[in-house]
Design a protein that fits this description.
Strand order of the largest sheet: 8-11-14-17-20-25-28-31-34-37-39
CATH architecture of the largest domain: 3 Solenoid
Number of domains: 3
Radius of gyration: 27 Å
Distance between the termini: 91 Å
Shape: flat
Number of strands: 39
CATH superfamily of the largest domain: Hexapeptide repeat proteins
Helix content: 10-25%
Length: 341
């Protein structure tokens, strides 16, 4: 692909300083860029790299004095990078048509321009939309529906009755609609609670590799529009995740948790069952959430505390032995003083 700097500036809604007719043929990091590449600068830690880069142009938030080439002043260089890198990214590889080594039940239906690789299985009454790509090893259970333009990478399993929206990306190894974890102790051991619901995932969601989303005991486990889920995330039965929320790697969401819109859940966060997380809340990495969080609330630690309080508390931990020693000394001196009285 080849774009002029003027075309790029129009895409990222930026202002050009320098030659707007420069041809850009690639996107690269500051230290690896060559002539024809465009790079991005938004972190002052890399000021030296920005001054020495070989890139033909930079996207910056304000004019960079130590870079002699053309620049695009953009309101958000990180967003500009995401928009532009998407243009230069290679397309998802496609198998032409439906492989004769795939199995699609006679009652299933497929839309236009699908790409179905060998070793795909689609069960009874499945509906596969237009432009869908299914990689080898994908399992589609009975009555599953997959929306237009969705991509399911190798070895994804979507179990019966689940609903997958449009423009979805599900990375390798994900399991959608496995049974929720529910048992009741009985005389003969743990008795399984049948999981009778399903999973619904709305449009524009991306799910990282080896993540799992359990079907509901009753009703629906619901992942709403625009949610982004990292690798190795576990979402239990009857969870609701609101629009545009982000769940980072190794987070574990227990059953019947209600997560609002635009929430950020950090890596390795654990959330207990039946709590709610308000819109725009943020939970720091490694935290344990044992109670509900209000809209816009930030939480850190295990159990969670307001971030400033948690940091103050954490800073005291290493001082506790010394503080304890001093307290004991004070107590001893007070006892001795009382004896003299």
């Amino acid at each position: 692909m080849r774009l002029s700097l003027a075309e790029i500036a129009d895409l990222v809604k930026g202002e050009i300083i320098g030659d707007e007719q420069i041809d850009i043929t690639g996107v690269n990091s500051l230290d690896k860029a060559e002539k024809g590449d465009i790079s991005f600068f938004y972190d002052t830690r890399y000021s030296d790299q920005a001054g020495n880069t070989r890139a033909s142009a930079l996207v910056v938030s304000e004019k960079l004095q130590n870079f002699p080439g053309s620049q695009i002043i953009a309101p958000d260089p990180r967003l500009a990078y995401a928009l532009l890198a998407g243009l230069f990214a290679p397309p998802v590889p496609r198998f032409h048509g439906i492989s004769d080594k795939a199995f699609l039940h006679e009652t299933s239906s497929t839309g236009n321009n699908v790409s179905i690789y060998p070793m795909v299985y689609a069960g009874k009454d499945t509906v596969i939309g237009d432009n869908v790509i299914l990689f080898p090893g994908v399992f589609i259970g009975d009555r599953v529906k997959i929306g237009n333009n969705s991509v399911l990478y190798a070895n994804v399993s979507v179990m019966q009755d689940c609903l997958i929206g449009a423009n979805m990306v599900i990375h390798s190894g994900c399991v959608i609609g496995s049974d929720g974890f529910g048992y009741v102790p009985g005389e003969q051991g743990n008795v399984k609670i049948p999981q009778l619901g399903n999973v619904q995932i709305d449009d524009d969601v991306e799910i990282g590799a080896n993540s799992t989303i359990d079907r509901a005991a009753h009703g629906t486990t619901h992942i709403k529009k625009g949610v982004k889920i990292d690798n190795l995330v576990q979402i239990a039965h009857n969870v609701v995740v609101g629009e545009n929320s982000i769940l980072v790697a190794q987070a574990g969401i227990s059953g019947s948790v209600d997560i609002g819109k635009n929430v950020i859940i950090g890596g390795q966060v654990g959330i207990r069952d039946h709590v709610s997380i308000g819109d725009h809340a943020q939970v720091g990495s490694g935290s344990g959430v044992h109670k509900s969080l209000d809209e816009g609330e930030a939480a850190l630690g295990n159990p969670t505390l307001p971030p400033r309080l948690w940091l103050k508390t954490r800073a005291l931990i290493e001082r506790l032995p010394d503080m304890n020693k001093k307290i004991r000394e004070l107590e001893k001196r007070m006892k001795e003083t009382k004896k003299k009285e």
